Amino acid sequence: MGIKEDVRASYTVSFERRMRNWARSVAGSSLGFAQVNWDSCGGGSDESPLPILSGEAEDTGKALEKLAIRYRRAVELYWMWGDSDAELTVLGRKCAVDYRTFAGRVIDGHRLLQAELTRAAEAWRTHRERSESMVSAARHSGVDLTTGILQV
Question: What is the pTM of this model?
Answer without folding.
Answer: 0.73
